[in-house]
Automatic annotation (TrEMBL):
Belongs to the UDP-N-acetylglucosamine 2-epimerase family. It is an enzyme of class 5 (isomerase). GO terms for molecular function: isomerase activity. Residues 28-375 form the UDP-N-acetylglucosamine 2-epimerase domain. Its EC number is 5.1.3.23. This is UDP-GlcNAc3NAcA epimerase. Keywords: Isomerase.
Length: 378
């Protein structure tokens, strides 16, 4: 069979590594994968670095769409993907997560009667002001195979009217829903040991379990002056007050918005704070090394929240809600919004309550293989 994979944003490139690896190891003679990169992320440290390090085959096509307003960006992607579908005529299109590249893949394939396989289906924040929430809902409702990574995802789909007991043959009107685990766990387990050889801690002069790792990129945090200020104020405060190093590999969006939205004097203070180590985005192996050895993680990223959990690290989530509710329910993470007091309070709380037990909520690390086997059997 031929599958056409759509990637575009950093987390999708990483997720795709699990499927590509499984094809190479187990299904090389049975599955041909054609990879289409929309070009949504294009900086070397947001895209290229992952292909080399995670041994993902180079994309067969790169649409080079780049950044833009939602409609413009998504529209160009749909148009480009449509052309490729006409040439390639795949059996399945695989899409990941909830970005504009996911949505573009879902729309182009479903209208051309190519079966859509949505990996990381069913997740909801119940907040439609998030662009990702719209992307998820639309993608799920035009998919033929939905692979929610959690029971919560399955429950959300049931609530939206999906039939969990549907029988083959699966179609867009009779989709199949299967929780086979999370491909991100596959990756974290697989690369965890390999990441031991990273020297990122030495380069940044960090001591194991003595520093905090942070990431910020959600649009409602980066594009809102007050929220962005509250978040930076919190990081500034913790790092100075507690004399703890905070490493912040900064997403290009946040780098840009920081310059525009933060006062010059506050920005200067941040630059002068030697404990706040603001660096460019790091590679996945470096990120895993940083996550595994951090004492605590502060983030608004979906992927980083989960990796914190996989590595039993407490996590302060810079959002009001999360799609990964089971992590919060387990006590391993706290929703702190962009609220200075809540962030600080949770920092001290986790300082005293470091005992996070990673429960088995995301499968057993073989999600990619199970997904591919299921597609082959049908
Ligand atoms: C996108 C996804 C988001 C995901 C995130 C992962 C959408 C709507 N959002 O958000 O769900 O969590 O990726 O990182 O699809 N930029 C660069 N270089 C790059 C890429 C982006 O400078 O290589 C800058 C540009 O100024 C661009 C901005 O970042 O305008 C935002 O990029 P975009 O891809 O639109 O959204 P993200 O915020 O990255
Ligand atoms: N990541 C990375 N380098 C970084 C920041 C994040 O490799 O500098 C990885 C991280 O380990 C996770 C994924 O990128 O696997 C998460 O992507 P991101 O935070 O951009 O998006 P989200 O998961 O929120 O959609």
């Amino acid at each position: 069979i031929k599958i056409l994979t759509i990637i575009g944003a950093r987390p999708q490139i990483i997720k795709a590594a699990a499927i590509s690896r499984s094809i190479k190891n187990k299904f090389q003679t049975k599955i041909k994968e054609v990879i289409v990169h929309t070009g949504q992320h294009y900086d070397a440290n947001m895209s290229e670095v992952f292909f080399e390090e995670l041994q993902i085959p180079k994309p067969d096509y790169n649409l080079n769409i780049g950044s833009g307003k939602h409609g413009n960006q998504t529209g160009k992607m749909i148009s480009g993907i449509e052309e490729i579908l006409e040439t390639e005529k795949p059996n399945f299109m695989v899409i990941y997560g909830d970005t504009n590249s996911t949505l573009a893949g879902a729309i182009s394939a479903s209208k051309m009667h190519v079966q859509v396989v949505h990996i990381e289906a069913g997740l909801r924040s119940f907040n439609k002001s998030m662009p990702e929430e719209i992307n998820r809902i639309v993608s799920d409702h035009v998919s033929t195979y939905l692979f929610p990574p959690t029971q919560t995802g399955v429950d959300n789909l049931k609530r939206e009217g999906f039939n969990l007991e549907s029988n083959p043959p699966f179609t867009i009107d009779n989709p199949g829903i299967f929780n086979l685990g999370d491909v991100m766990l596959d990756n974290s387990l697989y690369f965890s040991e390999i990441a031991e050889s990273s020297n990122v801690l030495e380069i940044l002069d960090l001591e194991k379990n003595k520093y905090v790792l942070a990431t910020i990129h959600r649009n409602n945090n980066t594009d809102d002056k007050e929220r962005l200020k509250q978040i930076f104020k919190s990081l500034h405060h913790i790092s100075r007050q507690e004399n703890v190093k905070i490493v912040l590999p900064l997403h290009p969006r946040t780098l840009k918005q920081r310059k525009v939205l933060l006062d010059e004097s506050f920005s200067k203070e941040l630059d002068e704070n030697k404990n706040l180590i603001i660096i460019e985005p790091v590679s996945f192996l470096e990120m895993i090394a940083l996550e595994k050895n951090a004492k605590l993680i502060i983030t608004d990223s979906g992927g980083v929240q989960k990796e914190a959990f996989f590595f039993s690290k407490p996590c302060i989530i810079l959002r009001q809600e999360t799609e990964w509710v089971e992590i919060v329910e387990s006590g391993a993470a706290r929703l702190c919004d962009a609220n200075f007091e809540m962030i600080i309070e949770s920092y001290y709380w986790f300082d005293k309550n470091q005992n996070i037990q990673a429960a088995n909520l995301y499968g057993d690390g073989t999600a990619a293989e199970k997904i591919l086997q299921l597609l082959l059997n049908d």
